[in-house]
Amino acid sequence: DKQSLSMVTCTAPVNIAVIKYWGKRDEDLILPMNSSLSLTLHQDQLKTTTTVACSRNFQQDRIWLNGKEEDISNPRLQSCLQESILWRLNDFDCNGTCTSMTSCSPNDDDDDVKIWFVLVYTLSQLFGVESEQLSAVARQGSGSACRSLYGGFVQWKLGEQLDGKDSLAEQVESESYWPELRVLTLVVSAEQKSVGSTSGMHTSVETSQLLKYRADVVVPSRMEEMIRVIRERDFPAFGELTMKDSNQFHAICLDTYPPIFYLNNMSHRIISLVHRYNQYYGETRVAYTFDAGPNAVIYTLQDHLSEFVQVVRHFFPPEVSGEEFFKGLPVCSADLS
Ligand code: PMV
């Protein structure tokens, strides 16, 4: 009927990689140079919610982000909207016009990832698009976003085909596989990243010799090992591999010319603290990982969480840090679910 209004609401979680994706082999199709693996976090503070409504009565596409109307001529928004046009044309209830409202958490490096992903995902749900098609669509907003399609431990396979049809996200283990695992976010700075991942990756691919070595030699065996230690729930091995992979990613940033600095002094102090803590116990109880920014994500087990939080509070009291260390996001634990 002409008055009908279709509406769907979806939320998208963040994912944090333990084997990092860095470098595209095809910038148009968003195909990676190496496989990657992440954990999907279901933290209330870190999710994005989008509602899409579609009706014959709407005059034009309109999008609001956190209550503010966006300019839909933005290229990334356009690419997401383009993706959905075919779905819309196949849909009898709609003449191709949608409105969407998105709200997302502040203080997150990956806001852009989640916003575009969740918009396309919500559109796909509205029009009943099959999930196999979604990795390619989700990648258009931001490559790593395709890993948020699943909960738990998720790999994004490099794939071999030129058209990228086999470069897909795939669940390795479900969200309930390792219930003792905990995630702690340490917000060092709420500022926007200095070099975005798209341009950073581009420069790394052009200039870093280390990147090629990493993609060809290091990551293939590291992916296998990471999947094995996750399946064995071997935290010391998981933590060590996670830290080594984060460090190699930031080494590549330094090997990029001109170099990219995502970590700051506070990040370096957190790295030292984690190593000192682990050395004190003679085993890896806590692991850090850093993406394209200075904020630390800490993986640990439930048994060690409260002590490590105390240690962090001791060495980084808010008045000493002088930065937004404890602001915005509380230092909190979050279940992986
Ligand atoms: O998907 P992008 O373009 O936001 O790049 C993500 C890059 C890292 O976060 C540094 C690594 C990763 O695999 O998530």
From TrEMBL:
Q: Which domain of life is it from?
A: Eukaryota
Top EC category: lyase
One GO MF term: ATP binding
Reaction catalysed by this enzyme: (R)-5-diphosphomevalonate + ATP = isopentenyl diphosphate + ADP + phosphate + CO2
Write the Enzyme Commission number(s) for this entry.
4.1.1.33
Q: Which UniProt keywords apply?
A: ATP-binding, Cholesterol biosynthesis, Cholesterol metabolism, Lipid biosynthesis, Lipid metabolism, Lyase, Nucleotide-binding, Steroid biosynthesis, Steroid metabolism, Sterol biosynthesis, Sterol metabolism
Tell me one Pfam family matched here.
MVD-like_N
| Database matches in InterPro entries | GHMP_kinase_C_sf, Mev_decarb, Mev_diP_decarb, MVD-like_N, Mvd1_C, Ribosomal_Su5_D2-typ_SF, Ribsml_uS5_D2-typ_fold_subgr
Q: Which GO terms describe its biological process?
A: cholesterol biosynthetic process; isopentenyl diphosphate biosynthetic process, mevalonate pathway
Q: Which residues form the Diphosphomevalonate decarboxylase-like N-terminal domain?
A: 12-83, 119-169
Pathway linked to the protein: Steroid biosynthesis; cholesterol biosynthesis
- Which SUPFAM superfamilies does the record cross-reference, listed alphabetically? GHMP Kinase, C-terminal domain (SSF55060), Ribosomal protein S5 domain 2-like (SSF54211)
Q: Is the ATP-binding keyword given for this protein?
A: yes
For this record, the Gene Ontology CC terms, alphabetical, are:
cytosol
Q: Is Lyase a UniProt keyword of this protein? A: yes
The Mvd1 C-terminal domain covers which part of the protein?
183-337
Q: Which family does it belong to?
A: Belongs to the diphosphomevalonate decarboxylase family.
As for what it does, the entry says: Catalyzes the ATP dependent decarboxylation of (R)-5-diphosphomevalonate to form isopentenyl diphosphate (IPP). Functions in the mevalonate (MVA) pathway leading to isopentenyl diphosphate (IPP), a key precursor for the biosynthesis of isoprenoids and sterol synthesis.
Q: Which PANTHER family match?
A: DIPHOSPHOMEVALONATE DECARBOXYLASE
Q: What is this protein called?
A: Diphosphomevalonate decarboxylase
